[in-house]
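User: What would this chain look like folded?
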Amino acid sequence: MWESTGPAVKALGALPSLAAAGAVVWAVARGRAAVRQRVGRLARPTAVCAVLSLITGFALPKAGLGSGWKLAEIAVLLLLLAVITRWSPLRELRSALPLTALAVTLWPLALVTGESFLESIGIATFWLLPAAAAVAAGAYPRRQELRRRGAVAEARSAQRLQLSRDLHDFVAHDISGIVVQAQAARFVAATDPSRALLALERIEKAGLSALAAMDRTVQMLHGPDAPATEPLPDVSQLPSVIENFTSAGATEAHLDLPSPAAEALSREAGSAAYRIVVEALTNIRRHAPDAPRATVTFTPTATTVEIRVTNDRGARPAPARRRASRGGLGLPALTEHAQALGGTLLAGPHGDGGWQLTAVLPATFPKETS
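Assistant: Here's the prediction, encoded as structure tokens.
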């Protein structure tokens, strides 16, 4: 098609090389902060360079530029191919990557004549290898960074979930107790100051407990190098929880915690059992504040410990059941926690208008020695 090898034709033949080199210079000829942003925008210029390379390569196969110039052009295209694979957005990469790989793969076919179809396929396959290597060189760090970002996002999500659980399971329980005690103190302050003083003492105790839970949460956010704090509550602290719950409202709570059941729970399972009981009592206080009785029973079996929290019907059952039916985040989160430990958790109506929560956690009983 082009038979002349004059300066104009040679200039056209050199255009892809100059354009590719210009794209590289444009990307790196700014401050370090702007380099990555510009490199990420190289996909379209690279696609233009690849199209120019294909057009001039087949339209001007004998422009007199020599294979050395063409090899330099291909080397720059390979560099651009690796760079755009590493940094460019996927929507721009979809068109630039195949065009650039095609330009690298087909460039020698315009210079050779007389080869058979199979020989041409072999030549193209040979030059496909450096194109694949350039793509792999860019794709591997891109994949590693995506995995790193995914791991960071997953860790942050787990941390937020743990924070949410701690705030709900511990702080919310203490805050609800403070509200109940404050309401009781307001009603009896004028007629029975001694009871109001007792309520204020319980408010102080619940507030200190909430602050301790907040301290644990903040220390967790500081990471593994943070100073050690007190361990999470476990079933050994349930008697005081039951006592405070009974003294704070109209519901009389009872705890049946035999020693074998307490000793059979691991530290993590014991903390989960504490959370489950606290959540159940908090729900009773919110949704059935006039229930006359609530029972917390731990029953050990051969391989598990069953936790059963039951409350009787209160004086205002209808509103309580409606509010409980809307549900919240506490029981679903605890259900997932119990399942993660290999147990189960179920909650639902019980008896004549009452409510019952049943959790089963795995147990590790010590082996008997002969």
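Residues 7-151 form one domain. If you want, I can go into more detail on any region.
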